[in-house]
Amino acid sequence: MTALYLRFKGSVFAVAFSITADYQLAEDCVAETFVRLAQVSRFDHRKGDGKGFIHTIARNVALELRRRHKREVCDFFIQSYGEADKAVEDSIFVNQLLKELNDKQRQIVVMHCCCELTFKEIAHIMKSPESTVKSRYKKAIAILQEKAGE
Number of folded domains in the chain? Predict the structure, then answer.
């Protein structure tokens, strides 16, 4: 279980933060996701890494926490690492771009780009057809490119 936590904590946080837009709630979501994963009897880490299953739990927990706390979506902040000044500028720029997307588009972009999930896995997590996920991703990328000036 420790290996799964170390491997997926960052991507679970990214999914949670894309939904809750709150650092503390996203951290709570990471903890709750792995608590729930430990309670699932049908999950066997020896049969695969369970990437889609873990991110499904994370998405559901994040949606529950957002509903429970009923907070407004606020500024997003995805941290970058490297040179301090450049990292801050990049993070602010990315966060401003992500604000332009609706909730579902933002979740799909984060799951695909940060968590490296396939469209099929994202479709399963979001309970949407794969073609819908692909079209939302394509539209989101077009919006991001337009807003970024590319």
Answer: 1
